[in-house]
Amino acid sequence: MWKYYAFKIAGFTLSYLPKKVGYLIARLIADAVYMLSPALRAAIADNMRHVLGSEADDAALKQAVRGVLRNTAKNYFDLIKIPHMKLNDIESCITVHGWHNLENALKKGKGVILVTAHLGSFDIAVQIFAVRSIKTTVLVEPLEPPSLLKFITALRESNGVAFVPAQSGVLKVLIQSLRRGEAVLLACDRDIASNGLKSNFFGEETILPGDAVRIAMRTGATVVPVFNLRRGDDRYDVYFEPAIDVIPAGSGAVARNMEQVAHVMEKYIRSCPEQWVVLSRIWASE
Length: 286
Fold this sequence. Notes:
The protein is an alpha/beta fold. It has one domain (2-275). Helix 3 packs across helix 4 (58-81). The protein has helices at 2-12, 19-36, 38-52, 58-81, 87-92, 99-106, 122-125, 128-131, 146-156, 170-179, 211-219, 253-271, and strands at 94-97, 112-116, 136-140, 162-165, 183-187, 197-201, 204-208, 222-230, 236-240. It is globular, with a radius of gyration of 18 Å. It has 12 helices and 9 strands.
């Protein structure tokens, strides 16, 4: 319950601060968390070892872990700022690359499954769909307590993008959206529903969520990877990749399709590992 009250207090106080001041406070909080949470540091460091490779020394790992925590804190500040941002303000701070890849996919009329990772400033980036009037439903992790989920969902939906938690019955909601020719967005780097499949990710086997490719194979929807990165000036780049060539059926088709998704996630995570804001272990501990 403390998380709910923390977000409520932040929403009534920090959300009115200028971005530079808010980010400074976010950095101070992140550095305090780094010092006080050894278990959290260890989990993030384990993820970073896989991304950076065996050649990464302790100094590089520590720097990456600090970066992940600082970017996470910035993202929380971005989240509470969303209701106070006009669509024009959001549009002015996002540079979009490859928008035609989404437009071409939507023209096929079977809906678009946008696959992504927890990279950059997720909550700000998805607002581009509201800016450009693309009906989009985003699948997110269910949060406890329910009051926290309700509060954060209200922040995220303040400009019109729909967010649904990964709970019973959500598959029907996503398929209905696709059949209307809309877009749905799923993060594919964390198995939050515990129904994923074994995948090779950064050279080692782990469990990744396969719902995106399974739904695409079932509905014929086009799969378009999309990722966002925070720039040095705290603006944002959003990249729409060319559609994945989904294998429609056959032995091992799901795994081979997931392999394509994992490959493009690796590309973007490697480019800015400190922006991969996953705070739990992706690979099983030894």
